[in-house]
């Protein structure tokens, strides 16, 4: 198993170290240690309720918005503990964007959806820069050609797949380094799923991507590294190929071969 340490010249982008999370008195994440490398896709798999989403949400502290959530340990991003006292949580969430199961565009125009983060984060209100950023972000998610003539139409008129692309474009506009995706294809059909998978593969050249998925074929197709979780524990973390073909732990083998879950 590859835990922290032994990365040669590489510093991990995300270093999760002895991390625990409690929902009130329920110990949902138990002593998690993972190093996530830069500009790769890391998948989190495991049966329902094992803590995948909780761990993903811990990486940009979205769990903080809930009451009675307690954590211990560290999550270091580029060497800085995001649970440290000095952390600006708004800046963290700009740097670590999140895409959810169901696309959640705002009920405003496509253009305004992408420009939204620039305004609320007071990054710029210069129209030329906003225009350029909207175009660049929509091109990055391969949506531009389809919608460039209807930028001022409601985002809610887009297909679900296009809406999910738009949600990713909305993140890209504010220049994150890390993109977290929580089952981003679960509301999409197989064709749309394949397109979003292709997009993730393209985006990994520029972003560090962590994706929670129930779909093991998806994890095997798109990720470089896979974390397998069970009942709040990290059972195994390794290269995806190893997890799926020659896992070190029996539980991992049982899960990936469909014997439970
Ligand atoms: N807000 C919450 N309050 C209390 N318990 C929670 C909360 N959110 C999740 N849990 C519990 O924490 C555990 C882990 O949940 P989590 O959603 O992280 O698992 P998951 O592996 O992502 O599951 P799924 O695949 O079904 O989405 C579960 O037992 C769940 O019931």
From TrEMBL:
GO terms for cellular component: membrane. One of its GO terms (biological process) is phosphate ion transmembrane transport. Keywords: ATP-binding, Nucleotide-binding, Phosphate transport, Transport. Residues 14-256 form the ABC transporter domain. Pfam families: ABC_tran. CDD domains: ABC_PstB_phosphate_transporter. It comes from the Bacteria. GO terms for molecular function: ATP binding; ATP hydrolysis activity; phosphate transmembrane transporter activity. NCBIfam families: 3a0107s01c2 (TIGR00972). PANTHER family: ABC TRANSPORTER I FAMILY MEMBER 17. This is Phosphate ABC transporter ATP-binding protein. It comes from Endomicrobium trichonymphae. The gene is pstB.
